[in-house]
Specification:
single chain; four-stranded antiparallel beta sheet; about 80 residues
Length: about 80
């Protein structure tokens, strides 16, 4: 069985140019090494940053969910 242990805080965005708020994090109940978090970007209200790890937080990947009408479907919030 895979388990996670408490470790030091990690600044996954490592970006001082954006203001981030409303962080949500979750752990996959069938694979606790799969962790994901979402954060709003206060510098661009049409953008949400997604961070995920497949190795319990040892490394992280960043993806953007954007509201982009001219470039096709994206994330649109009401």
């Amino acid at each position: 069985m895979q388990t996670l242990a408490v470790n030091a805080n990690v600044n996954v965005s490592n970006n001082t140019s954006t203001g981030e708020s409303e962080m949500y994090a979750d752990v996959n109940p069938t694979n606790p090494l799969n962790v994901a978090g979402f954060v709003h970007n206060l510098s661009n209200l049409g953008q949400i940053q997604l961070f995920f790890s497949m190795n319990g937080g040892a490394t992280w990947t960043r993806r953007l969910i954007t509201q982009c009408s001219p470039c096709g479907p994206g994330f649109i919030s009401d």
